[in-house]
Structures are given as structure tokens and as C-alpha cells.
């Protein structure tokens, strides 16, 4: 075995927890870098994958129990949260997906109905 296969901390071989931890850290950094590149390259518009091209976003919006609306791009898996600098830009565009809402007990407010009608294709008519 070469010196690269032995842990400098404990002297064990390639299955040493120190070596495995360092390799997992390197893989995690590569995954984060790749995800960032995918998010930056994605237009977040329908049609990037060659299906149903159009001006609508590929972002699915969901209203959580805390009444915060967050989104996820169906093409690159980027999460959109209100703290993002471009959140309002993307939220103001028409989505090609229907907005979903977490479990509810109380009726929808007028503002929630307006948001659903804007992003959910008139779903309040059946609620």
C-alpha cells in the first residue's frame, strides 16, 4: 500500500474513520459546487428540458403551515425562500404548476385565495 492509503492520525488503512470522513467532506463539497452550477445555469422556466416550452416558470409553490410560501424548481431543485434576493421576481411570474397548501383547519383568507387564483388556476372555485 502507498502512503496515501494510511491514516496520518491513527495509522489504519483506507477504511479508517478519519480517511472516510475526509473523503465524505470532499464529496459533499463537490455536490454543493455542482448544485450551485446547476441552479445558476437553469432558467427556471418551463421548457429547459425540451418539454412544453413557454413563458411560465417551472417552480412549484407551496404555502406551509406557517403561511410562508416557498418554491422549488422542478428542473434544478433550487429552493426559493422569501429571504432570497430574487424571490419576488420569480414569485410574481406565472407558474406552470399549481400551488399547494399545507393542511388547514380555518378557511382561506381573501389574500390567500388571490394568491391561489394567481398561481393555482382557479382552485378556490372548488374549495
In short:
Helices cover 33% and strands 11% of the residues. The protein has helices spanning 17-41, 87-92, 110-120; strands at 59-63, 69-73, 79-80, 100-101.
Tell me about this structure.
The chain is α+β, with helices and mostly antiparallel strands. It is 33% helix and 11% strand. The chain is built from 3 helices and 4 strands; from the N terminus they run αβββαβα. A hairpin with a 5-residue loop joins strand 2 and strand 3 (79-80). The protein starts with 16 loop residues before the first helix and ends in a 7-residue tail after the last helix.
Oligomer: single chain
The largest sheet has its strands arranged as 3-2-1-4
Rounded to the nearest angstrom, the distance between the terminal CA atoms is 68 Å
Question: How many helical stretches?
Answer: 3
Largest sheet: 4 strands, mixed
* Poorly predicted segments: 121-127
β-strand percent reads 5-15%
**Global structural class:** alpha+beta
Radius of gyration: 22 Å
Give me the count of strands: 4
Shape: elongated
Task: Please describe the topology of this protein.
Blueprint: H1 17-41, E1 59-63, E2 69-73, E3 79-80, H2 87-92, E4 100-101, H3 110-120
Parallel strand pairs: 1-4
Antiparallel strand pairs: 1-2, 2-3
Question: What characteristics describe this protein?
Answer:
disordered C terminus, 127 residues, elongated, 4 strands, alpha+beta
Amino acid at each position: 500500500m502507498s502512503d496515501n492509503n494510511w491514516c496520518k492520525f491513527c495509522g489504519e488503512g483506507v477504511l479508517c474513520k478519519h480517511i472516510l470522513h475526509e473523503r465524505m467532506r470532499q464529496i459533499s463539497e463537490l455536490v454543493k459546487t455542482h448544485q450551485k452550477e446547476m441552479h445558476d445555469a437553469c432558467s427556471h422556466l418551463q421548457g429547459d428540458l425540451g418539454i412544453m416550452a413557454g413563458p411560465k416558470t417551472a417552480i412549484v409553490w407551496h404555502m406551509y403551515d406557517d403561511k410562508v410560501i416557498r418554491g422549488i424548481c422542478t428542473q434544478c431543485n433550487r429552493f426559493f425562500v422569501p429571504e432570497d434576493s430574487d424571490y419576488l421576481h420569480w414569485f410574481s411570474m406565472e407558474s406552470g404548476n399549481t400551488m399547494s397548501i399545507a393542511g388547514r383547519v380555518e378557511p382561506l383568507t381573501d389574500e390567500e385565495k388571490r394568491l391561489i387564483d394567481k398561481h393555482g388556476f382557479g382552485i378556490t372555485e372548488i374549495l
